[in-house]
Design brief:
2 copies of one chain form a homodimer. By secondary structure, chain A is an alpha/beta fold. The first copy, chain A, folds into 2 domains: 124 residues, Aspartate Aminotransferase, domain 1 (Alpha-Beta Complex); 199 residues, Type I PLP-dependent aspartate aminotransferase-like (Major domain) (Aspartate Aminotransferase, domain 2, 3-Layer(aba) Sandwich). Chain A contains 15 helices and 13 strands. A 7-stranded mixed beta sheet of chain A has the order 2-8-7-6-5-3-4, with helices on both faces. Chain A has a 4-stranded antiparallel beta sheet with strand order 9-10-13-12, covered by helices on one side. Chain A has a two-stranded parallel ribbon with strand order 1-11. In chain A, helix 8 links the parallel strand 5 and strand 6. In chain A, helix 2 crosses helix 12, helix 4 packs across helix 11 and helix 9 packs across helix 13. The longest helix of chain A is centred in the last third of the chain and has 19 residues. Chain A is globular, with a radius of gyration of 21 Å. The model of chain A has no long low-confidence stretch (mean pLDDT 97). Chains A and B meet through helix 2, helix 4, helix 6, helix 11 and helix 12 of A and helix 2, helix 4, helix 6, helix 11 and helix 12 of B.
Chain lengths: 366, 366
């Protein structure tokens, strides 16, 4: 067995798991449909009660005129940026160098839409007003990701968001929100989704991350924007005859979990503190501002993996199923707090982190 | 109530329905998952047992090296043509002027991929060898749709397919099969799917038409082609974290219905003959070659709708939920035979068509 397989298998076999809502299995779908009558009619190419009602609910939640259900955020966001580029007649946008569009979409924005991207900042920090000011008017749209996932889920202050929004309006640059994890940051900002979205011209949220649906995304904005987005959705091959398996599940888990984001944030703060109390381990950010953070080790992946395998086997708590290299002999993994944390007995958590600290000292202490 | 609503409502309220497999409701999904254990793991961005096994099964069925599950045929086919265009370095393809890509996809092929299309024939006939020969070498790929839906589901002969295939190989033109309804034509050709697909470089089949799944498509071809198609699938936003709601359903209904296509063809022949026995009604084609055909009236939509509303109310059999204008004062609707036909008592069918004939004579007879 490779070390990765060892890690995955020790993770899966753990009695408890530190993060997320549980295994992504077909039970997740079946649970969401338990109370749905068999006679409930399918949506039909973007029309019908099941899709229209959910879109209206999401539009109201986000404080936008209209919302459109998409199979994926990749599709929704490329389309949002394309609409804003066509609007201005300039195929150029700006985003963080570690944006999802830059590193996870096989250059779809360029290959399908011919849109060029400008980086707003250095990879290791969040976007600030000065970064957007430095653009001048040379882009059609700016995309901000809240929180910035690839740097542990960090956030600019709400004041910064307001300043960037004002600046973009003055400069006739459209502001798009990559809100894949927007719900997860509402408790930190102490704002409603609509208050944050009012600073943006268009907004995407994910329906399977924080709330744990099956897949799917919402793209919201004004009527003219969302109408155009439906034409592009068809062009992309996303206007499926039936999207209800995702919509019904999204609606169900939105109901179950959208109110629990404050609880996940508190759990993230607790668990990050526990990691930070261990020798040779730190979290990014030090104090989480959402349900997510990175756990970082100043040692190579190959040396850290066996420590975690051993811990998971002994403590009965799954910590992570992978460890990723992060350059110059260090490594990390992501944590996303969800429903599974509250199931772990408190004494087991305390023991596990005590044991992790000891193992790190034994292995790496001077 | 408008005439359209009257027609839809009379159709829905009928005890029996002539065509299709039944209402597209959430019961269709729930039935497919009844025997699936809750612990069955989700696919994960195109990997995992549930997607890989189904792809292998479809590749074997189609006689191709590999197959990829796509959320939609729109996405799969644009991608197939893009790959063949990039291969040859020429963004030009040829297809029937009533191809799905031309009339149902909001010009995605052009707007997303910059690919120009050349029409192979006149709109009212199927593609013949001479149409492909006339192209010379000026295209990267030819797309053939079997059967040609918009003209009632007509087919070229198998010999014509063989000749076109040979010609394209000689001329270094890739041949792509729009097999949205491929399963439905196998009984007519008396060939296996693999025998037909062997004439094509790439093949798409739908998973919700003849077999009645929820949504989804398969794109098949050789390893190099399918590998590239996965990169484009991600670019299009079709590489969802979980596609299993569609895959599990497709697999279930493939098992239930792929063996029933001969029965649907026979039913289509019977029902087409019944329509042709009515005054002022004809079908296209006269003798169906798949489960589908068009029912045509030489009178305007406004005059035909009330006849069908009345018939549906009296006979208790839903015939159609819509009638479409087809120019010069005529109209038509589509019929797709499925599981619902065998549920209708024979005497009721005979009575319904006798009544339809009488109504047509009363209304339009000289």
């Amino acid at each position: 067995m490779t070390e990765l397989n060892r890690l995955q298998s020790a993770f899966k076999q753990s009695t408890y798991q530190l993060s997320n809502h549980g295994t992504r299995n077909t039970g997740v779908l079946k649970k969401a449909f338990e109370a749905v009558a068999d006679e409930t009619e399918s949506d039909l190419y973007g029309t019908g009660q099941v899709i229209e009602e959910f879109q209206e609910k999401m539009a109201a939640f986000l404080g936008k005129e209209a919302a459109v259900f998409f199979p994926s955020g990749t599709m929704a966001q490329q389309i949002a940026l394309r609409i804003w580029c066509d609007d201005k007649g300039l195929k150029k946008v700006a985003y963080h160098p570690l944006s999802h569009l830059e590193i996870h979409e096989e250059d779809g924005l360029k290959e399908l839409h011919g849109i060029e991207a400008v980086y707003l900042t250095d990879p290791d920090r969040v976007v600030e007003l000065k970064d957007v000011e430095a653009l001048g008017q040379e882009v059609s749209a700016v995309l901000l990701e809240l929180p910035q996932r690839e740097i542990g889920g960090q956030l600019p202050s709400f004041e910064t968001l307001e300043q960037i929004s004002r600046h973009c309006r003055d400069e006739k640059i459209k502001l798009h929100l990559d809100g894949a994890r927007l719900l997860e940051v509402l408790p930190y900002y102490e704002k409603s989704a609509a208050q944050i979205c009012s600073l943006f011209d268009s907004v995407y949220i994910s329906l399977y991350k924080g709330i744990g649906g099956i897949a799917g995304a919402i793209l919201a904005g004004d009527e003219a924007f969302t109408k155009q987005s439906k034409v592009w959705k068809r062009r992309h091959g996303g206007d499926l005859i039936s999207l209800y398996p995702y919509i019904v599940s999204a609606d169900y888990y939105f109901g179950e979990r959208s109110g629990k984001m404050g609880q996940y944030l508190e759990a993230a703060k607790q668990v990050a503190a526990l990691f930070n109390s261990c020798y040779g381990i730190s979290t990014l950010p030090k104090v989480p501002v959402s349900n997510m953070f990175h756990v970082r080790f100043a040692h190579p992946k190959e040396e850290i993996e066996p420590v975690i395998v051993e811990l998971q086997q002994e403590a009965g708590i799954g910590i992570t199923s992978y460890v990723k290299e992060s350059g110059s002999g260090s490594c990390y993994f992501e944590v996303h707090m969800g429903d599974q944390y509250e199931e772990i007995p408190e004494d087991l958590i305390a023991e596990a982190f005590k044991s992790l600290d000891q193992k790190m000292i034994e292995r790496f202490g001077k």
